[in-house]
Design brief:
single chain; alpha+beta; 24% helix
């Protein structure tokens, strides 16, 4: 008999060793109802309490009087072991209301027989069975907000079988997990049942914990190489799948392959097909040996271009080149069809597939279908004569049958509440109403003329908010392209008043893009960020906008809005090029405010070689979301990016909001003085993760020197210097190897400096960084920085920045960037 895998949990730790049944997912919409219009147009970064949707109401009715029987014979398809997460986590994104359920099991062996307490946390529902008997049920079903209770389990001295049914109702992004904390005294052993060998499972889990891409980015002709820390002790099969982008996840994977990690080897190799597009790709991995199987999801960047594109000609010529690129390489979505029709090309099979998928998204009201109905309306308005009559009729039916706002009948989980979705829904309603003014819209019972009039009023409120407060999703590489969907469509189809207002906001967006783009990479502090935009700036959907607008950058397959920019006649303001590429020896400095309640006070320092930006003050000590507060991008390599945050989740590859790298679990106090940013973190008494960390991928910088409390990096002739209030621990194994640098403690501080080496060596800079004094003081909490690289700076946790002892409040309340030109900072001569 194989040795059963046994994992020990100590008091206060969570149990994560479980055998997993299949994830069951069933469409579950609930009754059609009219929602209440509760949008107040005060957009914030974070989850909005939107009330209860029909699917959740239906779940509550279902569970009220049901009886859940033990299912003791479910098929075990995978294993979850300690290492990724303190939760048993199945979170994800479902575009339609979906009932989720999964059976899991383990065997508990306590210190001795008796009744033992556990803390049980979840968002959905959990039913707990011990030795065949139902012991507990906990069903809060609170959307994405964990609830907890204490349960008592009777455990036999020689072990008890524990089975749980874990359930949730998915409404787009869904926190679906169980966190089971051992409160008893002494060690609790969890034995994973099944025929899987214990030692084999432990080996597979060690591989799954450690596996990561061998490179920050893979280029032309390179294989995908995945590395681990310890060699395999037996030949392990590794299956890998590259998924479509998040909005196309319902389609088959882009790539599937298997490789073998041979005995004694630490690298698995996958040949990447030429048709796999460039992108930051999610990669599902399955490790298997005999009957043992472990699953893991990671990601990797693929960028075959060895440098940014340099587009010749004026804006019109660059737009034409952009349309040609997208017509050939664009993702199979409505935007690609628009690009091809704008060029006068006939529909091909890919276009028809894209339109079929677009219509399905609209008809079934998938979340984010508002992002594709707008380009579909553009296609219909400008190119309907190029469409076959049958397809034209289907498009007309989809437009007339759509749900354009939450107060119309529906039982979907479309997200109506964030800044970008509000805009897209209102724009879609305006254009659809104008195109079909005399028709009755089947879902609402209103005429197109009534819809258009209502949309005008709603859009006026949206513009009032954005004009008064700026953007909650400032500078976001993920969400500016979505804003462009709505704004560019308004610029093309709206009446004069809304067109003018749209152009004003477009001008602001392109001004901010110009400020925050360096060598073709869109970077900078962001109101909402995900790992994919942070780790792979040139692969974001925002990057090509800068390429077309300013002539240098990266083109990729993103078609959410770029075809609308290229097919339309909007022209960004003149004079922005000077901010895109400052002259040698000069630096551009900018300060401005964005977001409701001055949520973001933004500072920028940028030279031709390096860019530093930060969001000042924010809400220190509060729970974070997706705010990306401190950012550095060097011009020497498109992936030469550095930032600091407090991780918001356990798993370095997880997708929580905030995640391990995107956003902050606990918000810091941040300030910036010219080329120096200070980051002061107070995590409170019982932080889930008691450290802050820097993302700094050493391999994409030309050189680096690390000291006990500093790290300096060179990119071409520019530098990035990090200094910390405690030892900087370079992570050498697992997903953080070569990129992650931690400072432990509930309170910590960092200084980030950028500039030109000015002919000095990196060693000279390292000596100056070592001689810089960065210190924390309590009562009141503050961070002081003094040394040869900066004036005397102090960041008070309550009162903000002091320069040479004088209080330096943020200098403006304007949404329009206040810009100054400075002499670029260069490393001074060492004494």
């Amino acid at each position: 008999m194989p040795e059963r895998a046994r994992f020990v949990t100590h008091t206060g730790e969570t149990v994560t060793a479980f055998a997993l049944g299949r994830l069951e997912a069933v469409y579950y919409p609930g009754a059609v109802t009219r929602g209440a219009d509760n949008v107040d147009y005060k957009f914030i970064n974070g989850f909005v309490d939107v009330g209860e949707l029909p699917c959740r109401t239906a779940v509550r009715a279902e569970i009220a009087d049901r009886t859940v029987a033990l299912k003791d014979d479910f098929e075990i398809v995978s294993t979850n072991l300690p290492g990724f997460n303190r939760r048993l986590e199945f979170s994800g994104f479902w575009h339609r209301p979906t009932r989720l359920s999964r059976w899991v099991r383990t065997r508990f062996v306590p210190p001795e027989g008796g009744d033992y307490s556990f803390r049980l946390a979840t968002c959905g529902g959990v039913h707990v069975f011990v030795d065949g008997n139902k012991i507990a049920a906990f069903e809060p079903y609170t959307r994405n907000e964990a609830q907890e209770t204490e349960i008592v389990l009777p455990l036999a001295a020689d072990g008890s079988d524990l089975v749980m049914l874990v359930e949730e109702i998915a409404e787009r992004d869904t926190n679906y997990f169980v966190e089971l904390t051992w409160l008893g005294e002494g060690p609790l052993a969890a034995e994973v049942p099944g025929n899987a060998d214990g030692k084999t499972l432990e080996m597979l889990m060690a591989l799954a914990r450690a596996i990561r891409p061998a490179r920050i980015v893979f280029g032309e002709g390179e294989d995908l190489r995945l590395v681990v820390d310890q060699p395999a002790t037996a030949a392990v099969t590794i299956e890998a799948k590259v998924h479509q982008s998040v909005h196309m996840r319902h389609l088959p994977p882009l790539f599937e392959a298997a490789s073998t990690l041979a005995v004694g080897e630490k690298e698995a190799v996958f040949a990447l097909p030429g048709e796999l597009p460039d992108g930051y790709h999610e990669l599902d991995i399955a490790f298997s040996l005999g009957e043992s199987r472990i699953n893991r999801t990671i990601a990797f960047a693929l960028l075959r271009d060895d440098g940014p594109h340099r587009l010749a000609g004026d804006l019109a010529a660059r737009k034409r080149e952009g349309l040609s690129w997208l017509a050939e390489h664009g993702e199979l979505r409505a935007g690609r069809v628009l690009a091809r029709l704008a060029l006068g090309l006939d529909l091909d099979d890919g276009d028809r597939a894209a339109l079929e998928d677009t219509l399905d998204a609209i008809d079934t009201r998938r979340d984010c279908s508002d992002f594709v109905i707008v380009p579909l309306l553009w296609i219909y308005a400008d190119h309907r004569e190029a469409l076959p009559p049958s397809l034209r009729k289907r498009i007309e039916a989809a437009i007339l049958g759509y749900r354009y706002w939450m107060d119309e009948p529906g039982n979907d989980t479309m997200w109506f509440w964030s800044e970008n979705h509000v805009l897209c829904f209102h724009v879609a309603e305006l254009i659809a109403g104008g195109l079909f003014a005399e028709d009755v819209f089947a879902n609402s019972g209103m005429s197109g003329r009534e819809h258009a009039a209502l949309a005008e009023k709603r859009l006026a409120r949206w513009f009032d908010a954005v004009e008064d407060h700026g953007l909650a999703e400032w500078n976001s590489a993920a969400y500016y392209p979505i804003d462009f969907i709505g704004l560019l469509a308004l610029q093309r189809f709206a009446g004069e008043t809304l067109k003018t207002r749209a152009e004003t906001v477009l001008d602001r967006l392109f001004s901010m893009i110009a400020l925050h783009t360096i060598n073709g990479v869109s970077a900078g502090s962001m109101g909402r960020a995900y790992d994919k935009e942070l780790r792979a700036g040139p692969l974001s959907e925002l990057a090509p906008f800068a390429t077309i607008a300013f002539g240098t950058g990266w083109l990729n397959r993103g078609v959410a809005a770029l075809p609308m920019f290229c097919a339309g006649d909007y022209v960004p303001p003149e004079g922005l090029d000077q901010f895109v590429a400052p002259p040698e020896g000069r630096a551009v400095s900018a300060h401005y405010v964005q977001g409701y309640g001055r949520a973001a006070q933004l500072a920028l320092y940028k030279t031709a070689g390096v860019q530093l930006s930060a969001s000042i003050d924010a809400t220190p000590g509060a729970k974070g979301h997706q705010q990306h507060l401190v950012d550095v991008q060097a011009a020497g390599h498109p992936m030469a990016r550095v930032w600091i945050n407090h991780p918001g989740a356990d798993d370095p590859w997880g997708s929580d909001r905030p995640s391990y790298w995107a956003g902050n679990g606990v918000m810091p106090r941040v300030t910036q003085h010219q080329n120096c940013c200070l980051f002061l973190s107070d995590l409170g008494e019982n932080p889930r993760l008691a450290f802050t960390h820097a993302y700094a991928p050493l391999s994409v910088f030309d050189d680096h020197i690390a000291g006990e409390d500093f790290l300096v990096l060179r990119s071409a002739e520019s530098f990035v210097a990090l200094k910390a209030t405690g030892p900087i621990e370079a992570v050498g194994e697992g997903p953080g190897a070569g990129i992650e640098h931690r400072v432990r403690g509930k309170r910590s501080g960092w200084a980030i400096l950028v500039g030109a080496l000015g002919g000095r060596s990196l060693a000279e800079l390292a000596a100056l960084a070592e001689g810089t004094n960065l210190s924390l003081s309590d009562d009141p909490l503050n961070l002081s920085c003094e040394g040869p690289l900066t004036p005397a700076l102090r960041l008070d946790y309550r009162d903000g920045l002091f320069v040479e002892g004088r209080h330096a409040p943020f200098p403006t309340t304007s949404q329009t960037p206040e810009i100054a030109w400075l002499t670029a900072f260069a490393v001074p001569a060492s004494n």
